[in-house]
Structures are given as C-alpha cells and as structure tokens.
Amino acid sequence: MHPFVLTTLIFSFCSVLSVDASKTLMGFSIDLIPRHSPMSPLYNSEMTQTELVKSAAMRSIARSKLLDFIGQNESSSPLPSPPSPSLPSPPSSSSSSSSAESAITPVPDHGEYLMRFSLGTPQVERLAIFDTGSDLSWVQCSPCETCYPQDAPLYDPTQSSTYMEVACDSQACTLIPQNKRDCGNSRQCIYLQQYGGSSITIGRLGSDTVNFGSTTGQAATFPESVFGCAFYSNFTFEISSKANGIVGLGPGPLSLASQLGEQTGHKFSYCMVPFSSTSSGKLKFGSYPSQSPTNGVVSTPFVINPSLPSYYLLNLEGITVGQKKVLTGQSGGNIIIDSVPILTHLEQRIYVDFISSVKEAFNVEAAEDAPNPFEFCVRNPSSMNFPEFVFHFTGADVVLNPNNMFIALDNNLICMTVVPTTGISIFGNWAQINFEVEYDLAARKVSFAPTNCSIY
C-alpha cells in the first residue's frame, strides 16, 4: 500500500472513532503502577531489591531477543495465516524447530508497569500491562478455548450493553495486516497478535466503552473503543494471573493512543519513578497540565520501521561519556524507545566503543563477578567521580545522571544499565526515569523534560 494511502486511512479511522468536538477532553492523568512496588499485585515481598532488579534485567534481555526475532521474521517472511476462528490450532511452543524461536527464554511475566481501566456497561475493571511496543489492546474474554489462568473472571462481552463485534469488512479490521486477520463464521473480524516465536493471542475484534479513573477524580470515558477480545493465548513467556491483558500505546492506528487522538490532541506522556520510590508513575493523555519546567525540554523525531511497525524508533547520533563522544555513524531510526525493558541495549559495534569510553572515564577496574545479565560493574562507588552521560538524538541532547546509568546491587556493587545486543538498540525505561516523556503522534516527535516523577 502506498504510504500516503495508509496515512489517509489511519487519520480517517481515528476520526471515525472520535466523539463530537464539543465533548473533546482537554486531558487526563492515571496511575502507572510499578510491578516491583508494594502497590502492585505482582509484588513479591520475599524478594530483596537486588533480586527484583535482577529479575527485571532478565525480562529486559528477553524483550531484546523478542525484538530481534520479530525484526528478522517480519523482514524475511510473512507470518502464518490465522487459524480457523471456529477451532483455533496455532502451533505450540514445544513443536517449533526454529533456532530463533528457541533462543527466546521463557521468563516470568512481561512489562514493568501496570494500569487499571474499566470496560463495558456496566463497568468491569481490568488490570493490564502498559506497553508502548504494542498496538492492539486486548483482554481475555469468555468463552475462551485456551487462556492463561487469571485471578479475575474473564471479560464477558455478552454482559455489556455497549459491546459490538467488529465486522471483517470494516475499516478497523482492514487496518490489521492481511496475514494477521481472518473472517469468522458470522463475518466477525478475527485477529492474530504475535509477540515473537510461538507467543500469540487470537480473538475477535470488538468495540466497547473504555473508562479511566483519572487521578484528578474526573473519569474519562471513551465509547466505541476498538480492542481485542482474546479466546486463545499461547505464550513462551508467562503472564501473571493478576494481569488481564495488554494496553498498546504504539504508533499504529489501532493503538489506544491513536484511537484517542482526536480527543487528546494526539498526545500522551508518561513519567517513570525510581526503582526505590514509594510513588506510582503517571500516564497522561492530552493537554493535562504539566508540572515539568518549560525550559530543558528537548524533542526528536520518531520514525516507524516496516519490520517493527509497533515501535517508536529514534535516531541516536552518538553518546558523550565525560569528554569523549562516541558516534553511531547512522541516520534514520536506529534505536527503539521502549517502556518495557529496564536496560538500554546497544548494538555490539556501538557498545564496544561506548564501554571503552566508560572504562577510560572511570579509570577503575571492573568487577570480575558481574551478575548476569550485567556486563560492567564496579565496587565502592562512593570513591568514584561519575562522568556526564549525554545521549545525542537528532535535535535532542538528553543528559542522564548516574541514577539513570547505574543500578545499585548488594555488596557495594553498582552495574551499568547499558548492555550489548545482537539486534536493534533499545533505549530502556531506566534511562527514562525522572523524565516526562511525551509522544506527539501528529507531529511525529518524542520530547524529554527532566521531572521529579515521584511528585508528578
């Protein structure tokens, strides 16, 4: 499809979903719940902070491997056609012979932040994973042929007076890639969402009223929001029984961010808190009043790679470490900005130059017993001078402090939050802590504003 035609479809679809202009919301803010905090139903009180950090780091590595697989798969061959909607029979993870798939290590859960919302009429509260690397939002629905166990009852669309199935010849259905959709026996739209390897969810595309309990006390309600009603879930990673699905805030036309675009000025932002914070993060839509200073805000364009269409890609021109600048020598989108992994992953060639500059700036011996998956750790940080770190994106120099670049572990050990990858580079969420990160889908840019997110 010609890019202009696709863009026209996207904006016309968003217009179809929008409410009357007189009802346009100025903006609203909701809580982002860190999965590792006592506020989270996923919190494990028996784990130490070091164990929690290591667990999050391993999920970060798994995310990188998933991205590597998806990029190779999308660019080399189409995805398999969705199975029959009457009796789904997708491949099991044990039957796969692909070396790329077997490299994906099953890890507990997926995502580092959770969010609550309500669906349907009457309202049913759901707890879902917040993900800027997904487009279609989905929940598990009843009846379900194969679903992962969840504590809350499955969502039953027949009990909602505002639920409607989406037809397979509708505009919303045609926005799903052709090799990821099918037409059901009753002409309902069937989708297939793949997360890498054999990790897939299949369901019917539907629309219903979505409600967010704003932190200001004023609820934000959006009728006829399109989402996936999953009746089959098969993952190589385990999703917690506390989570009921995923909320996608990617750049695609079916993401929540795109669907709310006309009512929220095509903008959303998040503010992620430090690991030790007792506060929740915040997710903001539209022009909800910002507490970030107007000075110090920098912006950079984002691009969309056809091989990774659900991700925002920035162009990283270089990284300054102290007095030395490491150049990437690349143009166009070369690094994903991602809300899920805590670690920043750099392509091997860039990482080698980067870590060489780090060792030169510190002028200390690296710890030989760096715990997996960390690559560079040092002891006794109080005796060291930390260099300045600046990530130079096109048009935006993002200055990171030591808390963005290092994680404190046991035995007076600190480890760098940057690791090498064999796939595409990723700007992880630890590097984004205490920034208000705003996505402007209309202007196609991402902005960074230094902020104390714990009081945001």
Automatic annotation (TrEMBL):
GO biological processes: proteolysis
Main location: secreted
Biased composition (Pro residues): 79-91
Record's keyword terms, sorted: Aspartyl protease, Glycoprotein, Hydrolase, Protease, Secreted, Signal
Keyword presence, Secreted: yes
Protein family (similarity comment): Belongs to the peptidase A1 family.
Name of protein: Peptidase A1 domain-containing protein
Species this chain originates from: Vigna angularis var. angularis
